[in-house]
């Protein structure tokens, strides 16, 4: 979820009720703010918000059902998740591919912080910051090419 997302705000009370009932359902319910954890959004290939996953014994399934409390509970109690196709191996959050994707999301956050530092703290013009990144990219490419 993201705090600014209207759909996330709409499901928030339902999700919190679902979390309160988690002990009775013998499950763990959590939520992750993708603005605070960009690596996880990359690892889970989050393209829409909110995105709900069911994980059991290292197998991940994306929940695409109704977002009412009754349907969420039924998904667990009636074991409806067994009929849902697991996330493909290469898209699984524990795969090497998704570890790399998480790394790219962390890298983009790091680049954003450097850009903010250059433009905000040091007062460098935005275009000069872009030029620094372009030159750095070219130099890294030349170095790796050698």
From TrEMBL:
- Keyword Transmembrane helix attached: yes
Any one GO molecular-function label of the UniProt entry: disulfide oxidoreductase activity
Record GO cellular component, one term: endoplasmic reticulum membrane
Among Pfam families, the record links this protein to: Thioredoxin (PF00085)
Write the record's keywords in alphabetical order, separated by commas: Disulfide bond, Electron transport, Endoplasmic reticulum, Membrane, Redox-active center, Signal, Transmembrane, Transmembrane helix, Transport
Q: What's the protein's topology in the membrane?
A: Single-pass membrane protein
Tell me which residues make up the Thioredoxin domain.
1-76
The transmembrane segments are 122-144
- Cellular localization per UniProt: Endoplasmic reticulum membrane
User: Gene3D superfamilies of this UniProt entry?
Assistant: Glutaredoxin (3.40.30.10)
Extract the InterPro entries matched here: Thioredoxin-like_sf, Thioredoxin_domain, TMX_domain-containing
Disulfide bond as a keyword of this entry, yes or no, is: yes
- Coiled-coil segments on the chain, per record: none
Name of the protein this chain belongs to: TMX4 protein
Identify the taxonomic lineage of the organism of origin. Eukaryota, Metazoa, Chordata, Craniata, Vertebrata
This protein's encoding gene:
Tmx4
